[in-house]
Amino acid sequence: MDSIVVIDFETTGLSPNQGDRATEIAAVLIRDGQIVDRYQSLMNAGVRIPSYVEALTGISNAMLRKAPPIDRVMGEVSDFVADYPLVAHNASFDRKFWDAELDRIRVKRKQDFICSMLLARRLLPQAPNHQLGTLIALAGLPVTGRYHRALADAEMTANLTLYLEQELMRRFSLPGINHALLGKIQKTPKAQLKQCVERFRHLCVE
DNA sequence: TGCCAGGCCCTCTTTAGGGCCTT
Q1: Pair A158, A150: CB distance under 8 Å
Q2: Which residues 67-126 of A interface with strand B at a CB distance below 7 A?
Q3: Nucleic acid strand B: bases within 7 A of protein CB
Q4: Predicted pLDDT at A2
Q5: What is the pLDDT of residues A31-68, one digit of tens each?
Q6: CB A30 within 8 A of CB A5
Q7: Which of A127, A129, A133, A166 has the smallest number of CB atoms closer than 10 Å to its CB?
Q8: Is the whole model's pTM more than 0.85, yes or no?
Q9: Which nucleotide C1' is nearest A16 CA?
């Protein structure tokens, strides 16, 4: 099983195109089916967090005033992530901010994103919804901290991803999981999941 | 002036609309 990094951003809003900025990031390195390293930091981009987002995340403007500058944090987390494949829950959101913040420090993304929400929609269609908290409860996984804080969400997304990998291995009798297989599955219509796994079974090794 | 995300996915679809999910 190869290494992957799960990331989670907290931000001032939903869209970097509308001026929203990152306020916190966490990155969790998974190797051989276990979390082996973590990075987490608040970051100060010199912008205000709207009060409703402060209430949502528990990250206040006072906390950001004491946080390190965003350029330094993004440089550090970019080094931590290196060229490992990235995972996030609803990855289209984190990818937008990852690309926008790296662009500001003139760093280019080196890898693709895998989305745990798209995988869960395919592998856990019976879930009442596919919010992170619902899936953690459904899978019986531990709540590792406050939801909407970066490290807790990244750790829970990491545990969910490992759970989904186990589910995939069990359901299709796979000897192991390769991130390239996850990348194929997240884009495959539910009805064609079996054919997709069989087509790319050769990617999986013990 | 008023508005302001966007990618994915389902369906009463594909010349579209609307819900989900992330902060």
Answers
A1: no
A2: 89-90, 92-93, 96, 117-118, 121-122
A3: 4-10, 20-23
A4: 82
A5: 999 999 999 999 999 999 999 999 999 999 999 999 99
A6: yes
A7: A129
A8: yes
A9: B5
- Amino acid at position A105, single letter: I
Whether A187 CB is under 7 Å from strand B: yes
Residue A151, CB, less than 7 Å from strand B? no
A56: Cβ under 7 Å from strand B?
A: yes
Which residue minimizes Cα–C1' distance to B7?
A92
A98-157: pLDDT as tens digits = 999 999 999 999 999 999 999 999 999 999 999 999 999 999 999 999 999 999 999 999
CATH class of A4-164: alpha beta
Taking the C1' atom of every nucleotide in all shown strands and the CA of A50, the nearest one is B23
Q: Which of A160, A84, A170, A176 has its CA nearest to residue A116? A: A160
* pLDDT recorded at residue A204: 82
Output the six-digit token pair for A191. 């009805």
Where exactly are the structural domains of chain A?
A: 4-164
- CA–CA separation, A66 and A43 (whole Å): 9
- Collapsing DSSP states into helix, strand and coil, what is residue A100? helix
